[in-house]
Amino acid sequence: MPSDKLAKVRGILQRFTTPLLPDDYSALINPLWSTRELRGKIERVRREGDVVHLDITPGWGVPTSFHAGQYIGIGVLVDGRYTWRSYSLTNAPGHVAGTLSITVRAVEKGKLSNHLVGNVQPGTTIRLLAPSGDFHLTDPVPAKLAFVTAGTGITPVISMLRTMAERRQFEGSDVVLVHSSRTREDVLFADELARLQKEHPQFKVHTRITSEEGRVTPENIDQIVPDITDRVVYACGPAEMLDEMEAWAKDAGVELKTERFTLDRISDAQGGTITFPGRASIEVDGATTILEAGEKAGVNLPFGCRMGVCHTCVRPLVEGHAHNLVTGETHEAGSRVRTCVCVANGDLIVEA
Ligand code: FES
């Protein structure tokens, strides 16, 4: 028998004669089967400059129903370690049975985005977290709707637009999209937006090239959409844009839904001294997460996504009150907290 075949047979025999966990057996048959974690396989990779479009086939147990506008968490092995991020789903729910699609732009120092745009190959097995998020279309959709997006902020909205087209929800609606992009070449989904506009007279697209025309702000948005205050507004883009939109919507009494890709650190949490018993103590403000406090104090806690998605960073809270910047909840002593999104509201003791 040739030596490579012999080695394969030896490997298989070795596996069946070594104690294995249920996951090890199932992974021998199909790498997408796991009882411990949700997995998926990158099925298709389509690269376009600094952007990549990925279609993911979910493995056993991954919930595949979602609302247009929601995101999934993905964990990909990069340099021997799982790196987690969440990305908006871009396909319409149920369009191709079970497929989950995302679009990723490479960002500066973005370890995972650069890996996905530059290196990832079809067939790669990844870890997944179930679709979630509150930024999604209501049913029925509002009669007058405005989307305000910038850059990759279009990704959850393209899912909503594709869904509306499939479900014929443009009929009877009045929908406008104001999408900002730094350059003309950077406009994501440009051809598809033009086609949707052509096919649905109730849908208007305004593309703003910010390097030529400047940013869209609450002061100039009514020049683009004069009846903006009569619409339900969905906004997704950089934090600065969303902060301005939220302040404007509050004053103008506009119903606004926003999606942020970064952690919003503004809260009433007062900070305090965080103690990692037997390791270190450090005084921090109410915007520094427990994970960051540990890193400053030389206590390296485990982490994955650093966005509250993957739960890798969960540690027991021994004493005190921790404020969750994502959910707004207050966690009491005795609970287990996601250290990447929780801050101190008073002194804390956290098991390292
Ligand atoms: S590192 Fe992923 S939830 Fe905290």
From TrEMBL:
One of its GO terms (molecular function) is oxidoreductase activity. It comes from the Bacteria. Keywords: 2Fe-2S, FAD, Flavoprotein, Iron, Iron-sulfur, Metal-binding, Oxidoreductase. Residues 35-138 form the FAD-binding FR-type domain. Residues 272-352 form the 2Fe-2S ferredoxin-type domain. InterPro entries: 2Fe-2S_ferredoxin-like_sf, 2Fe-2S_ferredoxin-type, Beta-grasp_dom_sf, Cbr1-like_FAD-bd_dom, FAD-bd_FR_type, Flavoprot_Pyr_Nucl_cyt_Rdtase, FNR_nucleotide-bd, MRET. Pfam families: FAD_binding_6, Fer2, NAD_binding_1. Its cofactor is FAD. The keyword Iron applies. The keyword Phosphoprotein does not apply. This is Stearoyl-CoA 9-desaturase electron transfer partner. It comes from Corynebacterium vitaeruminis DSM 20294.
